[in-house]
Amino acid sequence: MPTAEIQFLNSENKKDRRYHHEDTIHDIQFNWYGDMMATCSSDHKVKIWEKQENETWTVVKEIVAHYSPVWRVSWAHPDYGTILATCSMDHRATIWRMMNDDKTNWVKKELTDSSTPVTDVKFAPRTWSEIMTGSPDQLRLAACSEDKVRLYTVQVNSELNDTYCDCTSENIIDYSEEQGKISCMSWNSSSRFASLVLAVGVLGGKGASRVDLYNFSESTLSDRSPKKWSKIVSIPLKSKLHHLAFRPNNGARDNVLAVATETELAVFKICSEEMAEEVVPEQEPVLRPDDNNQPIKHLSWDMFGRQIIALFASGVVKSYSWKFQPRRQWAASELVSNIDLTNITYH
Questions:
Q1: pLDDT 10s digits, 82-112
Q2: Residue 251 and residue 319: Cα distance in Å, rounded?
Q3: 155, 168 in Cβ contact below 8 A?
Q4: DSSP output for 211-250
Q5: pLDDT computed for residue 202 by the predictor
Q6: How far apart (Å, rounded) are the C-alpha atoms in residues 327 and 188?
Q7: Minimal CA–CA distance to 243: which of 292, 194, 295?
Q8: Across residues 67-73, what is the average pLDDT?
Q9: DSSP designation for 136
Q10: pLDDT at residue 51 is higher than 70
Q11: d(Cα 331, Cα 290) in Å, to the nearest integer?
Q12: Which of 88, 240, 267, 323 has CA 20 to 30 A from 21's CA?
C-alpha cells in the first residue's frame, strides 16, 4: 500500500517530508488560529497536528475515525471549544471534541442519519449559528450526502458523547427526486449586510454540474422549519465541479463565490439586496487555467478575501489576486511548483 506524503515548506523554502498516512490524503484544514491542523485519508484515519515553537509540525493524536475513507474535516469556531467534524464513505458524519485541553483526549458523537456516503461537512459561521438557534451555546453543522443536506444542532456545553450530547438534525434540502448528486457545499460569511446563504455543488450526468444557492430568511427565524430554506437560484456550470468556496466577508454587501471545475475557475458575485428568486449571480471574469490544461482540485481564500489559492492536479499552487490596473482582472502568480501529488489528492 502506498504511503501518502505530507510536505511542508519552511521559511528557507526547504521541503520537510514526513510520511504519516498510509493512503491518499483527501483534506487538510487549519483551525481558527493556525496552530493546529487536521488531515484525513483513505486509510480511515484523522491526524491532529500541532505547530511547535521551532515552526515544525507534530502529530499529537491519531484517530481511526471511520470504517471507510474519510473525505472532509471541518473545525468549529474556537468559542465553542476545540471541535472537529469529519465525514466518510461509511455513511457517517462524526463530531469530535477535545476534552480538558488534553490534545490526546477526544470524545466523539456519531451521526448516522444518512443511508449514502457523506461527502462534505461544514460548521456554520459563529454568527449564523446564533441566528439559527437563538443560543450562544449551540452551533450548527451541515452535512451532505448524495441526496440530502442535513443540518445538525449541537449543544456544546455538554460532554459531547453519545450519552450526554444533545444533537438534533433536520433535512433542509432533499435531492432524492432530482437529477444529480451533492458533492460539496460552502457557507457564506456573516456580516450586517449579508443574508444567510448555503451554496450546494451538484454533479449531474454527462459531466454537467451546477451550484444551487439556498437562503434562510431572517423573517422566518421565529419558525425554524426546514421548509423555510428556499432555493434562490441555480448556477449552471460548463464542466464537472471539483470545489467551491465563499469569500470571507470583508464588510461588503455582496457575496463572492469561487467555483473550480474541470476546465475553469469561475468567480461569481451574488447580489444580496433582496435575495429573491429573481436575483441572478453577476459573474466576475472567468479564469481559464493554462497550467497544461490541468484542472484545479482544491481552492481556498486568504483571510482577507483578496486572493484565491488554487491547487492544480499537476501539483502547482497558484495565487489569484484581484487587480484594478491596468484593467480589472484576476492576476495569477505561482507560489509552489512541482509538489508530488501522486499520493496527495483532494476528493
A1: 999 999 999 999 999 998 888 889 988 899 9
A2: 22
A3: no
A4: EEEEEE-GGGTTS--GGGEEEEEEEEESS-EEEEEEPPP-
A5: 93
A6: 28
A7: 295
A8: 94
A9: T
A10: yes
A11: 13
A12: 240
- Tell me which H or E stretch contains 129: helix 126-133
Residue 210 pLDDT > 60, yes or no?
yes
Residue 145, CB-side half-sphere exposure with 13 Å CA sphere: 20
Distance, in Å, from the CA atom of 324 to the CA atom of 260, rounded to the nearest integer, reads: 23
| Torsions phi, psi for 131 (to 5 deg) | -65, -45
Residue 224 corresponds to which amino acid?
R
Tell me how far apart the alpha carbons of residues 40 and 27 are, in angstroms, rounded to a whole number: 6
Q: How far apart are the first and last CA of the chain?
A: 19
Average pLDDT of the segment spanning 257-271:
86
What per-residue string of b and e applies to 198-211 under the rule 16 or more CB within 10 Å gives b? bbbbbbbeeebbbb
Q: For residue 100, give every residue at least 6 positions away whose Cβ sits within 8 Å of its Cβ, in sequence order, or none.
A: none
Among 219, 214, 208, smallest CA distance to 230 is for 214
Measured at the alpha carbon of residue 36, what is the angle toward residues 75 and 140, in degrees to the nearest 5? Answer: 10
Cα 62 to its chain centre, rounded Å, is 21
CA 283-231-26 angle, 5° bins: 70
Question: Which tops the pLDDT comparison, 11 or 272?
Answer: 272
Predicted TM-score of the model (pTM): 0.82
- What pLDDT, on a 0 to 100 scale, did the predictor assign at position 68? 94
How far apart are the C-alpha atoms of 302 and 128, rounded to whole Å? 21
Residue given cell 497536528 in the structure block: 49
User: Where do we find the cell 470583508?
Assistant: 250
pLDDT score for 177: 73
d(CA 188, CA 234): 16
Grid cell 456516503 is found at 117
Smallest Cα–Cα separation from 150: which of 158, 160, 140, 159? 140
Q: Which residue has the cell 528557507?
A: 12
Name the grid cell of 35. Answer: 496552530
Using DSSP bridges, classify how beta strands 296-301 and 282-283 pair: parallel, antiparallel or unpaired: unpaired
Of 118, 110, 98, 210, nearest to 159 (Cα)? 98
Q: How many CA atoms lie within 13 A of 251 on its CB side?
A: 1
